[in-house]
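Hi everyone, sorry if this is the wrong subforum. Our group has a chain we'd like a structural model of before ordering constructs, and none of us has done structure prediction before. Sequence below.
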Amino acid sequence: MQTGNDRHVFLATFPASRRDRAVALWVVGVSAVLFAFAVPYAGVALTPVPAFVASYQSALATCDIITAALLFAQFAVLRSRALLLLSSGYIFTAMAAMAHALSFPGLFAPAGLLGAGPQTTVWLFMIWHAGFPLLVLSYALTKAEGGGPEVKVSVPTAIVASIAVVFAVLVALVYVVTAKHDLLPILLGGGRYTPVMIGVVSAVWCLSLAALLTLLLRRPHSVLDIWLMVVMCAWLFDIALSAIVNVARYDLGFYAGRIYGLCAAAFVLIVLLVDNVTMQTQLSRLLSIVRKRVSEREWLFSAVVESSNDAIITKSLDGTITAWNRAAEHLFGYSSGEAVGQHIRAIVPPDRHEEMYDILERIRQGEVIEHHETRRMHKSGRMLDVMLTIAPLRSASGDIVGASKIARDITEAKRTQNALSREIEERQRIFETSHDLILVTDKVGNFVQVSPSSNSILGYRPEEMIGHSAVEFIHPDDLEATREEMRAARRGKQLRSFECRYIHKEGHAVLLNWAGSWSEPVRRHFFIGRDVTEQRAAEAQFRHAQKMDAVGQLTGGVAHDFNNILTVITGTIGILQDAVADRPELSSIAKLIDDAAERGAQLTKHLLAFARKQPLQPREIDVNSLVVEAAKLLHPTLGEQIEIHPKLAQDAWSAMVDPSQLTTAVINLALNARDAMPRGGKLTLETRNVYLDEGYASMHSEVAIGHYVMIAVSDTGIGIPPQHLEKVFDPFFTTKEVGKGTGLGLSMVFGFVKQSGGHLKIYSEVDHGTSVKIYLPRASGLQESAADTAALPTVERGHETVLVVEDDWLVRKYVVTQVESLGYTTLQAANATEALAIIDKHPDIDLLFTDVIMPGPMNGRQLVDEAVKRRPNLKTLYTSGYTENAILHHGRLDPGVLLLAKPYRKAELARMIRIALAS
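Answer:
Right subforum, don't worry. Here is the predicted structure as tokens:
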């Protein structure tokens, strides 16, 4: 297919210029003037010259055949259907002219050849002069800018077919006008035109005029179109002079018409020949330019090859070196004279010969080999790492005669790349295996790289953070300080160490200690963060323990000294009372002093209890009996508005404890519960045997692993705000109004329990109530006996999916670890909203394990109600820091529900999960 610019080099498609139009118009004008002069004399008889007819017909046929050949040549390139029709028209004219000459009477035979009759010649003249305009008209209607529609068949097939069709049509017409001429109407009779002749001539002339007008109206005009219009004008003059205004053969019109016909045949031929000569001249000039440029390119190519930093080698297909540039001399150590003529194996190590022959074979197949890394050998025997690009060399005929090879020395680059790859691999391994969080951000704080440890530290996968701003993850209170650290790093302070909090995916804060720096060349911040959340919590717990111990030491010292003072006061007050017995006014004062001393003694007793220095008289007691007795004392004290519900385990163990102090502790807790329920409520007293395992002990460093008797005091009061929970055991801390509490009740209980080797835990939810659990060591000791160990329940395992819902992230982490260790698949949520979203997303959840009391719009019970609406077959298990009895009797759960009270052993957790799944 030719491009648009290539197609416009031919007359059939080259746009006609003004000059072309002007010349054509001048030719038509001159022809018209001559025609006008010839018309009056068209009937003048002239000397008959039969040889003129033969010469005229021969010249006409020759011109038409040459013209058709030139047009067929253009058709071979353009494949234009219009051009094929026009070429066929000239072939038709040539054949018709020859048939007319053969049948012309008196030319080759008195009556003409081919069995011609009286009307044969005139009919052939009409057919001849009608066929050409008809094909020109077809050309005009078919042509378009660029050549018009293309012929789909091959060029030779199209040309042969068009010639064959023209020949077949003309043979058929000649047969009709010769063998069947008697059947045709008479056109010329008695030397005059018949009416039929006038009609036929008029039709032929109008057909020629139609072809001319169609060419004129079908724009745009090519050069060929312009000269075809000149031809058609001459054709019209030819018909007019030869068949309209003339009188007989060999008159002026006869001779002039045929001269016009010959001119019509010559116009396009002359233009085509001139165009062909012009093209030949241009081609010769272009060929000279191309040869010059080729010579320049060869010189330039040779210069480029010689000046190239890469080794450029050519070789034959058998591997013989045929060219060797300077870079090849430098790379391989062989001079050009030494290398050319040698086999290429001279630079190929023995272990690479198979590869060499494989490359030669691939080149023979025409394959181009690019960026092939291999090893080659220096003249000295030194190995080189090279990158090869090899391509076939082809002859002018397209045959592969050799190969060109470009070799680049990559020895040093490969050594550097290997070293860099090792370094990158080492850093990547550090990045991927680091337990610390490694972050890379751009200058505005968008994450570029995030280490995989983000999943374990923040709950986010790296791809969830990359592309996001650090602002989305940093705790709002630490945001400005972090920005200041980043600004300081960019100001040139290379290494920065600071702490800030990030928000975990589950919502809690994670405290990270950061080491960071700024790299100006890459415009990146680099940070390494270590999770110090648990470390800081442990430090805070340790500081709190130290504070409590220090306060205890101070309180104990003060109480001891105060006791000494009180001993003197209480010892002498009796003497003073006896001395003033007869004086009532002084006796009443002595009585006030005695009462104050007694109150001071009680206060001292509380302080000593908190300081764990009070004198205890531990003995083995039945805790159930003690709680029952305490309940009896509490009934009149608490009032009718407080309902007391003892829930005592029948098999509760005995405890080694001071009974009076334990009674005091229970009463203290009950009185605090009463104060928390000013409008009345329920007070639950409960006992239970528990085992605090290593999991619980790992979360509470002061707890020793072993068996305990638990005494729980739970209320339905107003609860304790979270910010006060850590302070409730501090001496003199109280939330009560002035004059309604000393702040020593819970601190005394705390000191007594610790002094007794036990553990104290408080659970509270605002507006829901408080539960205080006292864990006292079993009378037989904390260590399990062999029988106890043997009696421990078997841990039951499973494979189902459990959704754990717990608002305290530390507790949630512990529970998830325990559940997973039992073989279950776990999902986790921090609140009811997250839990419901997970339930909707994961239809394979088998058990919902949820805390009862949770912050937010829905508590555990409401979560279960909503979850069961969505998944009626979902199993549920509750857990709470409150005891089961406290939960049930305070109306938070319905009887019969499954609840696992905190703390619990792994075996209890396993058993309750199996019970819940089987329910």
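For your construct planning: Confidence is low (pLDDT under 50) at residues 1-8, 609-614, 781-791, 888-892. The radius of gyration is 59 Å.
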